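Renewal narrative, Specific Aim 1. Our central claim is that a sequence can be written position by position from structural information alone. The example that follows is taken directly from our test logs and has not been curated for this report. It begins with the structure tokens describing the chain, in the order in which they were read.
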């Protein structure tokens, strides 16, 4: 209950406002503060001004539309247990923490209940979900800022490490760890434990604690030469603890699965659904269909169908498959491999919507008007048969007047209606005004032997946008179905930018003579207007990157606070349960809401349980993003390692003590370097522009919004 001070209290001081925010973590928004201090009308305007000043000074930050003490931790936090204090109490630090933005990493003292259950007993090196609470300033006697209680242990302490083997003259060797944070020192490997590893090999070892002396290691696996591309993704997999080997019980359960029959399902095998995916896709979990709406009450309207592989039929709650899937959280994609969330028997076979094969699916049929707005929708559990498997280039070429033997028979009756429906959805999208950043992603193309061939920026086709819009609409329909049915779900949420990030963006835009209005509610269309102003200019890419950095990170949550980037009030991932656990949870919720079977969301998975799962899979997603980004960086650096001394064209976007922030393009005959307007015109900048010699590519900025 939020306490309300007497009405006689004058306008609160900043200290009083901060105290109120600290006393109500995660619950204090502008409305709650105004109500607590009895602030109305013009006094609320003054309150917003004071809150902006507190944010500018770094005292508070906005998260999930609520105000928090700056640099604070959410109530449920994924943390690594790092050691013990002088009293023997466990200490932990948050797994994800940005020191540049929030300052030093906070420490959490873990309280162990006297009658702790097995899943609550943690040890040094474990990773766990904690329920944390900030310690009052006057009660702190050391640098520990929080107390925490273990909700669930996610990973036990590492006993496995990866590194480079260095042979010693007398036999045996030592491990030089790849991840210095995991192992701060080298480990000794006895002669009998080398497994014939050669000097320079990348190896995986088991770390064995000795009763006396330093720990030693035993080689478990030789991963090959560090110079190979395969080794680069293996480094990321091991460094980030990405589970990549399925337990025997999981594989056995997957192989024992039987294909679903039409019993208990609607028979949609005559509907010409088709899949449109990247040319190199191995699994195909979504299919689409569209046709004109014959209803005279909806002139110019369309019936749009999206069918998604029925993973919930094969992966039951509490099964070995399910436990492994939630542990992985999502599939991880590297240039040379995929670490799947589910075994191949499920992802590439039973749940891959192959042409002319019966497949179980969960489908949504949506009625949209001529203006592209959804009028109604219904969900169905079906048995389908895909009419064709197309790639994006095929579909686009057919619509562009160059059909092939696959797309020719589908052009008039299947593809043209799809694009007609998409044209309507484009009108609705433009009216909605989602954030429209233009930051093409790089793709590393490998040769047949696994080495890097080239780095390209794939062309963005209308067929990509068509599938994207269909999936977004299906995701919205899923959230809109589960909310009124009172079935708990995991939302895909994206908070509006924090006050401090907006102020930093405003200062940057001032250097380009672009104004960002102060005050008022932020909307994605404000950013779109800024992006439109720099379209076609030298600073276009830079402004897109800085606007991206100003955004919050999308995540999963059991409570809904909307999706700022897509400008949607409610949104839930539904369309890819093969590779995202959140989608599988939403599928189960739809099965339960529609009474489609006994394999729906169990009653035990209430709001609190889904909040814990949301925190866990959000961390898994960030882990995957970081591993993918690091792998791409290493591969490109390796690709350029024989080009030391080559001249590249580059653009400097900033100068720091550590070096330059820049973008490199292709090798050029002569140096060409243009300083972005925001980059300081320092001697370092001028000297670098005069002589640009590349040893490795610029570090990419990454993505603040992982995906819609």
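The sequence written for that structure reads:
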């Amino acid at each position: 209950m939020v306490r309300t001070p007497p009405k006689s209290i004058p306008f609160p001081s900043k200290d009083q406002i901060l105290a109120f925010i600290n006393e109500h973590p995660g619950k204090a928004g502008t409305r709650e503060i105004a109500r607590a201090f009895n602030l109305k009308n013009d006094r609320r305007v003054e309150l917003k001004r004071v809150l902006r000043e507190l944010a500018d000074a770094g005292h508070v930050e906005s998260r999930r539309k609520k105000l928090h003490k700056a640099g604070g931790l959410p109530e449920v936090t994924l943390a690594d247990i790092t050691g013990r204090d002088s009293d023997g109490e466990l200490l932990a630090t948050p797994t994800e923490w940005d020191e540049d933005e929030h300052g030093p990493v906070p420490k959490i003292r873990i309280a162990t209940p006297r009658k702790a259950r097995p899943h609550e007993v943690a040890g040094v090196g474990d990773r766990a979900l904690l329920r944390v609470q900030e310690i009052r300033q006057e009660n702190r006697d050391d640098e520990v800022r929080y107390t925490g209680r273990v909700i669930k242990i996610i990973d036990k302490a590492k006993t496995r490490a990866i590194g480079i083997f260095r042979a010693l003259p007398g036999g045996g060797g030592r491990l030089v760890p790849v991840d210095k944070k995991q192992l701060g020192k080298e480990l000794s490997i006895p002669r009998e434990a080398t497994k014939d590893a050669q000097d320079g090999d990348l190896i995986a070892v088991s770390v064995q604690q000795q009763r006396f002396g330093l720990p030693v290691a035993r080689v478990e696996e030789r991963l090959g030469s560090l110079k190979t591309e395969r080794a680069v993704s293996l480094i990321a997999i091991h460094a980030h603890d990405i589970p990549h080997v399925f337990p025997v019980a999981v594989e056995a359960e997957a192989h024992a699965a039987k294909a679903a029959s039409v019993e208990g399902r609607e028979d949609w095998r005559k509907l010409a659904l088709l899949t449109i995916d990247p040319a190199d896709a191995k699994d195909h979990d979504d299919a689409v269909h569209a046709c004109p709406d014959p209803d005279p009450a909806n002139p110019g309207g369309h019936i749009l169908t999206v069918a998604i592989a029925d993973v919930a039929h094969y992966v039951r709650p509490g099964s070995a498959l399910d436990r492994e899937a939630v542990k992985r959280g999502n599939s991880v994609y590297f240039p040379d491999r995929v670490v799947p969330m589910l075994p191949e028997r499920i992802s590439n076979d039973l749940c891959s919507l192959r042409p002319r094969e019966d497949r179980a699916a969960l489908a949504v049929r949506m009625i949209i008007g001529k203006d592209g707005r959804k009028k109604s929708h219904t969900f169905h559990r079906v048995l389908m048969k895909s009419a064709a498997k197309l790639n994006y280039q095929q579909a686009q070429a057919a619509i562009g007047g160059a059909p092939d033997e696959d797309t020719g028979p589908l052009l008039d009756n299947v593809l043209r209606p799809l694009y007609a429906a998409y044209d309507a959805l484009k009108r609705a999208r433009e009216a909605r005004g989602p954030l429209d950043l233009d930051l093409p992603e790089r793709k590393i193309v490998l040769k047949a032997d696994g080495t890097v061939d080239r780095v390209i920026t794939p062309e963005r086709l209308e067929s990509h946008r068509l599938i994207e819009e269909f999936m977004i609409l299906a995701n919205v329909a899923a959230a809109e179905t589960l909310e009124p049915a009172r079935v708990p779900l995991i939302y895909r949420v994206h908070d509006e930018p924090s006050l401090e990030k907006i102020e930093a963006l405003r200062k940057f835009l001032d250097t380009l003579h672009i104004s960002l209005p102060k005050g008022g509610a932020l909307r994605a269309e404000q950013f779109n207007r800024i992006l439109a102003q720099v379209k076609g200019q030298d600073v276009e890419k830079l402004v897109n990157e800085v606007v991206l950095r100003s955004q919050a990170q999308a995540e999963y949550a059991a409570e809904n606070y909307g999706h700022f980037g897509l400008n949607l009030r409610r949104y839930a991932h539904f369309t890819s349960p093969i590779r995202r656990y959140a989608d599988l949870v939403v599928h189960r919720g739809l099965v339960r809401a529609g009474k489609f079977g006994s394999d729906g969301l169990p009653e035990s998975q209430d709001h609190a349980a889904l909040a814990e799962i949301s925190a866990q899979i959000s961390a898994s997603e960030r882990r995957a993003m970081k591993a993918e980004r690091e792998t791409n960086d290493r591969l490109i650096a390796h690709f350029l390692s024989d080009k030391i001394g080559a001249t590249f064209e580059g653009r400097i976007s900033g100068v720091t003590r550590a070096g330059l922030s820049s973008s490199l393009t292709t090798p050029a005959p002569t140096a060409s370097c243009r300083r972005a307007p925001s980059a300081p015109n320092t001697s370092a900048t001028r000297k670098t522009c005069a002589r640009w010699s590349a040893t490795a590519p610029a570090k990419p900025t990454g993505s603040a919004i992982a995906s819609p």
